[in-house]
Design goal:
6 copies of one chain form a homohexamer.
Chain A: E1 2-5, E2 9-14, E3 25-31, H1 33-43, E4 48-51, E5 53-54, H2 58-69, E6 72-73, E7 78-79, E8 86-90, E9 99-102, E10 128-132, H3 133-137, H4 140-155, E11 159-163, H5 174-188, E12 191-193, H6 196-201, H7 212-227, E13 231-239, E14 244-253, E15 256-259, E16 263-266, H8 273-286, H9 291-305, H10 317-330
Parallel strand pairs in A: 1-4, 1-10, 2-8, 4-6, 5-7, 10-11, 11-12, 12-13
Antiparallel strand pairs in A: 2-3, 8-9, 13-14, 14-15, 14-16
Helix pairs in contact in A: 1-8, 4-5, 8-9, 9-10
Chain lengths: 331, 331, 331, 331, 331, 331
């Protein structure tokens, strides 16, 4: 059983490339990095459950039903309060970038939840639990809560997976405020999703190399060593336009880096692409794939997550292998 | 020019009688009692403007555009913050009642606005300004703000219109908490939308009569006298089911009560029905209708507001007169 | 083969009981009394074709495809010009009546068509052709055209069916202008859809009876005799509200009147209800039903046409008989 | 844990009261009596799981996701084949009845499944399992399969619930063919949903009483005694029109009958109404309600299932109690 | 009059690039290679009719109405049974390929139809009849039926058109099973849609050439000669991604090959692209186009069929010529 | 305050790349070059109002509401008649071009309006008024009306902006008929949107240069001088396909030309692209931008107008600057 801890949000999307003032209806789904990673894993055949707090009303019922439809169990979550965080998505086109509008979520059921509301004993049912850097950033309260849950999980012997997901807007005092928090979290983590830029900017690592791959090879093994992290994974993304991008995945393990080949992305829905990659990495971990196959699988999973509707990955293993096969044929 | 002061909210409705967990899209509109009353008046040909604070992002732009589409001016509103209050509507059917789910709105742009942000001089452009009891209830902050704006408007010679709209859930300490606040507001009001039940429960008036119309005749002229209110208006509603109801309107003026005939309502969209009636009352006031014609017009306006899509009334004078005519023919 | 002659119009409907200013999309279909009557007959298994002129562009192609989907042949129509008449429908609810908004159609392909454009020889393929009073009213041009086609059809031995469909708005000078035109058409007609009110108001017949059924029994056999009409049919409708009405059908043949029993209508889509009845009458004629069965069938066909989406009847014989059966069970 | 055994079908509904030839899109959901009963129970807070066979392709994945969204576990089902049974729904209006069109489902994954494909040991996890008479009727194969599963479940000590659901079209040789099959099933059943008409027609019981309630009181206790059934439940339905009906529920236990009061139904979606009642009965059983409260709860659950979208009940205990409360207020 | 013989299927498409488990509604249309080829021809102005068997229920009525809307006559088809074959389409995006899910169709009205149910005399009304290789593959029954109809048509002097459309999944024993069947069909055919790969794999022709165009030039004239086929046509497709492809058309006539120029395809809807090409080829045949103009027209028709919604081509001659003109301008 | 004078039209669009015969609903919006230019300006923060005549019915109310939603005031327009011009849009895909179908609009409220119906005194409230060449072309009546309004506006001291927008189909006698009309309008204009091709073809200017930029540099300063125009603006567009194009903007002022850099366009909605550019030019004029910044802003505004839904630009200044910034980053 794989868990994720974090917030579930309502995603409200203006359909058909409309801007919000043009929309008379909004597409609704329920999302969050934890939800997305678990959805990916659930579609790969793993048992998964979300640890969160949902409102005790129609909104909570709707979020719960949606998570279940993705194959994520919700019996381990708690229910109370009346507010769900939400965000509005206006998909861009051509040179017009997509915009995401957040509203205040400090009063959401999750953001006002307390450690002692959660049934920590239920953690024993899982072998791995995933966390996200956004939970560290939303408020001092969620930061403390997240670190506490991670510590409890570590104590109970779960593998700790952590996606840095640094969001500049959420850290009022920037990297200086974030560094000690991230360091504390990284010391708990067994698996970490991080890039060379994070290593430099958040963690203050230095390098004399100029090129991305060189910096990755120099910095990330040192990050792994410093914080005793077994596995680091990440992607290199190049953006040509809203819909045309390239993506390379990498794994850092035992001091060496393994890269996937480069994918040419046609982007249908950008959000959750990184979570698709993360779910592929965790699937490879659970099934003990060899590094080359592992990073190809994970990157293909990430690529497919850009081509399906919604934040949450919904591709099966068959889908991922079919993508790989298509690529092989095309070379 | 007619103003309303209050909050603008996003309404998110599960379409086609779905419950929220069943909905993959939500109908979006922008509403509020002030918006609804002004929409009604704008469709009757009056110049109107909303005095509120909207977020300075896509949500604010969407709300602004929607208000403008109803014929309500938005140049007098202010913009800032990032959060709009919102509510979710699941329309009922048959014995299943409609449900409205509110989330926390204490951090909305309106609910965190300050008196000195508003350009009070712009009040001089209006002859009448409408307030709603919900603004008195949402928080101590909005209560203070609303009373302050009402006082400033009174000072500048505007006619003050006030709809009691008592919402039990919003007054933690019930009628005891509400009474002094309502009394303060009623002393400012020139026109008031109130029922005999409000007079008894909120204001503590006593009556020995048992029947509704007797109580109205006994209590409301005394309310008018006590608080120096020129005009009181309200409705008597009987609910047979979600979709079948009856409605009678009444006006209290110069100590006497004028009733409309009884309408048999087929309800398409219940929310905003009372605001439709209020807009009819204010239209009659502005155009100096004789009481019988006035209350028939206002009640017809209220009835039609139950038969159109959305909270905000969109019927024209022609529509109201056509309803009246149909009724005359059918008698 | 059964023909109808007349205009095809685009129907643009605001969905979900919206008013036109609320609608961001409109439901589109193609209609006309001729289309509707033929659609009904086609669904009863008859071969049908529309004689009209459609624009020679996407609009014409769309109308043609729609008629074909109803089972109406379009090879006998002609194509040219660029304009299709259209109307906008806002469906009412409860006390709010439906409204139909027409725009100018004087320049439509049909309204500017010339007699010699039509291949009159193709009339020989049909045994019956249906006309509508609206074609007599739209303009002096269409009036002349319609009468000319009717005369040609009569000469070629076709049965002439005519639905009076008097539209007050279209006759600038009222009944005085209409009377000679209708009289000319009635002299050509073998079957006529007309009511006792038409007989009095358009044709100037007098009666001393007060009740509807008495007037029908007095006036319509005299109309039949005067104009040598073999069959007159019509309905008695009572309107309780937009959605609740009653309907009785009648046939006048050989001087005597046969009535159907009274139907309680729940109205989904009012337009084309009369055409559904007409198609039932013509089906009974073609299949030589005995009068009682005939008028029951025709009235049931009319009733069903109020319960299906769109102007054009789409019920099969099975559907009509199932309605009758349900009624039998319920008595 | 509560199980149901049976087929999952795709429901394809022509939206907005359209007939199938008018529809350019169809609403899709996944249903079946088992699914519906479990959905009701899941919304009342019970753990539930479906025992069925789903295709091993996108259709199976879609059905699985849908069941999960209703809170029904799918890990106990098996996957294989490529075909899902399906049916088409055209909702009626007024006098026009709804029509359901079935296509051949003999080749569906469920209908071709074999007893030994199912993991019968997993039955031990459940305390109750629900069956439906349709599974007995679809084919000789499913009949045999269903009886075999019921026998195995009985052996393992599960409570057997059985809904007769006699479908005349599916029994080629009528009651004579059905009687021995139903008798065999009833001997296995602990709880049975059956009416006095079933007792007479399928089982051949005789009564001299004429009125429904008398027949229920005479026949159903004898059915219970004959087949050693602890609990019999059913409803009395009177149909005024497609949308207006009345419903009374009853329980037969220990030889005596308890009736609910009569509900006036406004029907939004007829299908699954009986399953809503059944889920209420089973909830009352699990929570040991006293008979009067029990039958009122179950009947309210059935009533609400007529007012929500889709076959599967989605009302919570709160919803059921709110309906009851509304009724109490209205008396 | 041009006929096609074969199955009509319901196409159910998940809208907006959704996967099936994400879709709450499905787009519905009716298709089949015969339908598609006839739709193309009908839009080019030819009279067409489908020879098939459709269910005698709402599904059959819907398919019939849809075919008629495309301009295809349905009076020559027969009606009975209750099942229509269907398939589900999930459109791909970027690297994610489209997937088509078929369910069992062995029990469909067409697949269970008998030769003697069809009115073979009606064949005399047509000058050409089109067949498809899928009908040879679905089952032994449809294979026999299709060959029998082709033989009857040949006897009555119709031109036989045949599209190989080899589907590996449908031939359990592969090419060995297919070869004698295809050979029998090719001996009946006057016009054949086939590629050099089909010649090698199905028919066992050998060539020493390596490049596609060389193989076409070597093999297909020999195929034509061997089976006495007057005209062979086909396309060379290169696939860069789901949406970007190239297409070249070719005609083999009197021993020589004529190629179109190469089109760069932007694919909206891949299915039916080949049928669009086939309809263009048959139009060129009927209108006796010179080979160069012919193959350019046919290839343009094929290209356009990839850019319109649905399987069935809906482009007019004007549309095809406009594409050609645009291309000329762009060179 | 900025005005535009001209026609408002209803735009009816077949959704999802459908052709008109495939569409069962049409997306509805209200448009026109004046509307589009004002919408752009309103989104940049300017007060704007449309001077037109709208029908006095639901259509007029809908158009009015739509304009208001874009931030355009409608109080200066007049109301009467019953007909609104309209056009149908079928969006192309790949090689299939978009098609626009116009119907006769000679009887529209605007096209039959008279000069003396308009309140010319209201012109004094504006500093600038925009006209479009289409108004000069639709009919002799609108031509006369447009020139008369322009003359009146000039007399009252407004800046006259004029977009040539030559439409070949609307000038029966071609350039010869257009030249004197355009010359008359250009003599009134202060700002003109025109290209080198217009200068040659409509106005008969000669040049010996061959390349576009050379011709612009040669011809347009002479046009400016000849007609005393202060500012000329236009774009150079290269079309690779329906969705891929390039765009360069230019300004001609004081005899010299300033170009923007070249934009690579991904086109979502082509119509109104030029109006987006015009609104950017007028915004630069009102805010006195330096030429280089001005033309970059205006061209970016034009580019964005191709990437948003609908004819009318809805981008804010922030949106335009974000596009510019993205471009800067990408260089």
């Amino acid at each position: 059983m794989i868990y994720a801890f974090g917030e579930v949000m309502m995603r409200l999307e203006a359909p058909q490339y409309q801007k919000l003032p043009q929309a008379s209806s909004l597409l609704v789904s329920y999302s969050g990095t934890g939800v997305n990673v678990l959805s990916g894993l659930s579609h790969f055949g793993h048992e998964t459950a979300m640890i969160t707090k949902l409102p005790n009303n129609s909104l909570g019922a709707a979020a719960k039903s949606y998570l279940q439809s993705l194959g994520i169990q919700t019996g381990q979550s708690i229910y109370g309060g009346n507010t769900l965080g939400l965000y509005f998505l206006e998909r861009g086109f051509g040179g017009r970038t997509s915009t995401v509008t957040y509203t205040d979520r400090s009063q959401s059921s999750f953001c006002t939840s307390q450690l002692d509301e959660f049934d920590l004993d239920s953690l024993d049912a899982a072998s791995l639990i995933h966390f996200c850097g956004i939970s560290l950033a939303v408020s001092a309260h969620t930061r403390k809560l997240t670190l506490a849950v991670a510590r409890k999980a570590k104590e109970r012997g779960l593998t700790i997976s952590f996606d840095c997901n640094y969001r500049p807007k959420l850290w009022t005092n920037g990297y200086a405020e974030a560094q000690p928090v991230y360091e504390e979290m990284l010391r708990l983590a067994d698996i970490c999703f991080i890039t060379e830029a994070d290593a430099k900017l958040i963690l203050g690592f230095k390098t004399t190399y100029l090129h991305k791959k060189e910096q990755i090879g120099d910095l990330l093994p040192r990050v792994a060593q410093t914080f005793h992290i077994q596995l680091i994974a990440g992607t290199i993304r190049a953006v040509k336009s809203v819909s045309e991008q390239t993506l390379i995945g990498f794994l850092v393990k035992d001091g060496s880096v393994t890269y996937s080949h480069m994918h040419h992305l046609h982007v249908l829905d950008r959000i959750g692409g990184g979570d698709g990659f993360a779910s592929g990495v965790l699937h490879g971990l659970q099934t003990k794939m060899p590094p080359e196959e592992w990073i190809e699988f994970a990157t293909s999973a990430g690529v497919l997550a850009h081509t399906t509707v919604g934040d949450s990955p919904v591709s099966t293993i068959t889908d991922v292998l079919r993508l790989k096969q298509t690529l092989d044929l095309e070379r």
